[in-house]
Amino acid sequence: MARRAGSRTPMVILAGLLTGPAAAGDVLLQYFEGQWETIERRMPDVFMARYHALWVPPPGKADSGVFSVGYDVYDRFHLGQPGDRTLYGTEESFRRLSQEMSRAGVLLYVDTIVNHNGFRDSSTSGFEASGGYPGFVTRLPGDADGDFHGAFEGGDWNMRLAGLIDIAQEKNHQFVRHPVPDVVGNIPNETARESNRMLYPDLDLPLEHGRRPFNLANPMAGDPYTENATGLLMRYLHWMVEVHGVDGFRIDAVKHVPQWFYNDYYDAAVYNVARNAIDGSAFTPFSFGEAFDTNFTLLESYTRKDGYGNRDVLDFPLFYAMKSVFDAGGFGNIGDLELASYDGSDGGYNDGTRGVMFVNSHDDEGGGYTTLGPGYNIVAHAHILTRTGYPVVYYNAHEFGTERDFPKPGRWEALGNTSELITRLVRINKEYVRGAHASRWVDDTVYIYERVNACLVGLNDRGDGGFDTRTVDTGFASGTVLVELTGNATSATVDPYDDIYDTVTVGGDGKVTIRVPRNRNPDDVFHGRGYVVYGPQKPTSTLSVTNTAWVIGADPTGGTEGVRRLTPLHVVTDDTIEVQLEVAASP
Q1: How far apart are CA 295 and CA 345, in angstroms?
Q2: How far is the C-alpha of 67 from the C-alpha of 437, rounded, in Å?
Q3: Minimum mean pLDDT among 102-111, 182-191, 214-223, 522-531: which range?
Q4: Is pLDDT of 280 > 90?
């Protein structure tokens, strides 16, 4: 967990120690379309849903105005001020969110753009004269495109993706890019301000892992220096981690920037830049890139996990495999999922060492419940939340309205609104999903795998009613009683079955018989509940908290559902509280 500037002492110490991504119980929530203040208010819901980290949109000022999601960057360092807010809030509200997340034990990943800025360039009337993009030049003597590639250049690295002006990371125009009065080398066409010192490290402080840190006690002690556009991008990453407590980055359009940029500059900028809040040791923030590609070789070129680099990529191979299986309307081959993930690029399929998994996202056409065929979205979530690796759940809070065509809709119940479908799976992930993967049954209809000695998962892609029964080997000891954890095996929404499959017992030969529902009920309703998860029954427990001053109830219903806090809050005013946990033995 990164050091948070100005963090307060936590009032509740229940989160435990944090682990790196892809450890047992790690699930990332992509939280979009919410103000920083709202996300801070809903941190109790994030905590109780047991998410490990949040991925939030690009926080800087956008080129196309206050209602932009933020991918058309105007000024990365402008996080909003009173009277000049971004869509999400101000620098102060972002800092408070970061601090609150630290107290809740939740990591903060921000979407970051190193490929491009906004849509305007030197041909835009008045743009260059007004200063252009803060920290960048759009035209120079001898270089008509300044820090950028030309409008007619092509190829993945030089093209203007979606019309956005493409940064030329290889150019070396040296300026003090956030100008300060009376400093040599200030960038042209921008006003020099003393306040820009806060955007620079203090060069008088001792080196930390080869770099000068920012002065958190005296931000105005920062020392401006000359750098190129790549240097500005690296300083921004350093500033976000050290000053604002960011724990990692989702890198937008990763394959549209050359690999040398990441290997030679990006990794050095973030290596050992964050500090563990427990023992003060330095660590390297986790990053994961977005590359719309299924080519393992290309994805590998943007992955680095050697202890110096800590980069992964979104698992588009698995995403497209799930779309292929589930878009077939019940006639796909679910067995294709077994060896589909980018996880196998290092030779170890299903060991969870590579790939950040997702079902839908802000870019995904269709979104919400309709992606991957009618009703199959939740089956796909059951897969990524029980297999090895690092899963993402996408949540769109719709705080800015439901008519925006971007970002796309997400899983509305990701924080418990309207149902527990997703939060139940996240809880299962936290409590049961650990250990090595072992495939137990694979055919074109049913896929069953075990997280060895932890849980047994069954997925079904058939689109009709009924169920499929399979007898499979397990790693569980003979006589182990396994409980179905999702409620799907005998749920009335699946079929009014008898309850013999609520619990099953491992036989003397290590085998067990389970029933995996199909995805339609007797009333011909496609519900997408074709999955089951079995695990050893855990003890029942009761948690009580005493010596609290009062309880703030959940927000009332009404208004925008996505901003409503669901979790009551115990208010502590004394120096101590008493927490009592009573645990009964398992049956």
Answers
A1: 10
A2: 44
A3: 522-531
A4: no
Count the neighbouring beta carbons within 10 Å of the beta carbon of residue 342. Answer: 28
SS3 content of the chain, % helix, strand, coil (to 5): 20, 20, 60
State the average pLDDT over residues 180-193.
96
Full-model pTM:
0.93
Backbone φ and ψ for 249, nearest 5 degrees, come out as -135, 140
Domain range 437-540, CATH architecture: Sandwich (2.60)
8 Å CB contact between 126 and 171: no
Return the pLDDT at 279.
Answer: 66
Dihedral sign (CA 265, 269, 270, 272): positive
Short-list 229, 239, 228, 306, CA closest to 269: 239
Of 180, 183, 187, 153, residue with least CA distance to 168: 153
162 Cβ contact partners less than 8 Å away, ≥ 6 residues apart: none
**Percent of the chain's residues with pLDDT above 70:** 91
Amino acid at 446: V
Is 310 or 545 the better-scoring residue by pLDDT? 310
Question: DSSP for 257-311?
Answer: S-HHHIIIIIHHHHTT-EE-TTT--EEPPEEEE------HHHHHTT-B-SSS--E
Q: Where in the chain are all domains bearing CATH 2.60.40.1180?
A: 437-540
- Nearest by Cα to 232 from 349, 162, 147: 147
